[in-house]
Specification:
- The chain is an alpha/beta fold.
- Helices cover 22% and strands 27% of the residues.
- It is built from five helices and 14 strands.
- The strands form three sheets. It has a six-stranded mixed β-sheet with strand order 1-2-3-4-5-6, with no helix packed on it. A six-stranded mixed β-sheet has the order 7-8-9-10-13-14.
- Helix 4 runs antiparallel to helix 5.
- It is globular, with a radius of gyration of 16 Å.
- The N and C termini lie far apart (39 Å).
Length: 203
């Protein structure tokens, strides 16, 4: 399974959008980078699906452009006019060469889901490896309307409960990818979130 961040060279604020290639070619989030369709077309002529972690603008601004270009089905937890498959907690989605369990992980967004296989975690914005606040274990912001630190903490705990011990690859919605002891990174993020201090104290 080959995973490429197709928004890595963006000049504007966007999430990391991941092209997962293998037996089933899937895009995880569409991002907000203009020209992302051209980048994807440099790797593949078709997408078997577009799968959303959640529908904040930085994750879906280019969604229509991607769906129009590839005529791909859309998998999402939250309602969307172009959704073809509703994701629910406990579902499985096949991406690349692996089966991923769907984990409902609200707190940063009410419609947030993460995806975990025997080797890989797509964590969206619930847990990231590094960002402007922390390195080696950070978490999504919860200081805006509709967000909840308490729900996010429970979501991180749920990821830990349902993540196999052998997961060594983490692809988060922001920051760098991580390869190694993913459980330790997620546990570090949980410890920081549980302190309940503002993530961005100057905001």
């Amino acid at each position: 399974m080959n995973v490429t961040n197709v928004t890595a060279n963006a000049d504007t604020f966007t999430c990391n959008a991941y092209l997962v290639e293998g037996e089933r070619t899937v895009l995880v989030d569409a991002g907000a980078m203009e020209g992302v369709v051209d980048v994807i077309e440099g790797y593949t002529d078709e997408l078997d699906a577009v799968v959303l972690t959640h529908q904040h603008g930085d994750h879906v601004a280019q969604l229509d452009a991607v769906l129009d270009a590839f005529d791909a089905p859309l998998y999402a937890y939250g309602e969307h006019p172009r959704r073809t498959t509703e994701l629910e907690d406990g579902d499985q989605v096949f991406m690349g060469d692996e089966a991923f369990d769907v984990i409902y992980t609200p707190g940063h967004a009410d419609d947030h889901v993460s995806f975990v296989s025997e080797t890989t975690l797509f964590s969206g914005d619930v847990v990231v490896h590094d960002d402007g606040a922390f390195d080696y274990g950070s978490f999504g912001r919860t200081d805006m309307a509709g967000q909840s630190r308490e729900r996010l903490i429970e979501s991180i705990r749920t990821v830990l409960e349902r993540m196999p011990d052998g997961v060594e690859d983490m692809y988060a919605g922001h920051g760098e990818t991580f390869h190694g002891d993913v459980r330790d990174v997620v546990e570090t993020a949980l410890q920081r979130a549980e302190k309940r201090k503002p993530k961005y104290p100057d905001d």
